[in-house]
Write a structure and sequence with these properties.
The structure is a homodimer of 115-residue chains. Chain A has 115 residues and is an alpha+beta fold. Chain A has a single domain, classed as Arc Repressor Mutant, subunit A (Orthogonal Bundle), CATH 1.10.10.10. In chain A, the strands form two sheets. In chain A, strands 3-5-4 form a three-stranded antiparallel sheet. A two-stranded antiparallel ribbon of chain A has the order 1-2. In chain A, a hairpin with a 2-residue loop joins strand 4 and strand 5. The radius of gyration of chain A is 18 Å and the shape is globular. The N and C termini of chain A lie far apart (54 Å). At the A-B interface, helix 1, helix 2, helix 3 and helix 5 of A face helix 1, helix 2, helix 3 and helix 5 of B. The first copy, chain A, binds a DNA duplex (30 and 30 nucleotides) through helix 4.
Chain lengths: 115, 115
DNA sequence: CAACTAGTTGATTGATTAGTCATCTATTGG
DNA sequence: CCAATAGATGACTAATCAATCAACTAGTTG
């Protein structure tokens, strides 16, 4: 097993592909994006995140765990509270890129009907 | 239903979140990343992609369809062949960002054991 | 039109995953 | 030590999705 893509001349290990995909996948869920967006304003406790997003507490906790696993978010415990914050600043750029691209494609799509 | 996040002061519609997530999700699968990577060298037919990636033909076709739906890849039919190409150039930047971030975090992680 | 080639799609299976409830752990304050 | 609070987690359900085979469509060539 443990195959590699060699045919393209560029050795791109399955393992590395998995890691990149894992990062994208973490951002590929509306619920997690909602949490990330809430955290863009700064570090917040789970309770605050739950209140702001309207998510079920257990669900929020799971998704936050997922984001930590993906290296996107960091966790800090203080007393009874647990605070999460953006750990990987590139998510700002990633989201910007996607948002701009969506805007761009939307513009082009609507332009089709305006000559 | 049709709720919006208003508590954060920034109106971010569920619908928009879904669109962004959809874009990320398309890149959140190793198989699709493999296809995208293969297409980064330029437009290719399904057959060539199948050969280069080692994917099952039907499976490749499905994932390519998925990438088209996500606005990442474009499709062009010519005679008996169907050619796919990168449609949204931001995938280059997206992948670069994630790769750099992974490298960075890997560096920091290994640094923990080197003082 | 028949045979062939390239690619798509229906149907199915198995795996993964989001959401939820109830329970559990950890921390704080009385 | 007890009650209360914040958050995580086990167990479960339902939904989603990747992979595959077989059947199909569309275009080409004899």
């Amino acid at each position: 097993m443990k195959t590699q893509i060699k045919r393209s001349g560029l050795a791109l290990s399955e393992n590395y592909l998995d890691k990149v995909a894992h990062r994208f996948k973490a951002l590929g869920e509306p619920t997690r994006l909602k949490l990330v967006h809430a955290l863009m304003a700064g570090e917040k406790s789970v309770g605050v995140l739950v209140e702001e997003t309207g998510l079920n507490q257990a669900n929020a906790s799971r998704h936050l765990h997922n984001l930590v696993q993906a290296g996107i978010v960091a966790r800090r415990k203080d007393g009874n509270f647990v605070y999460y914050r953006i750990e990987d600043a590139t998510v700002f750029d990633l989201c910007d890129l996607v948002c701009n691209s969506l805007r761009e494609q939307h513009k082009q799509a609507s332009g089709l009907f305006q000559g």
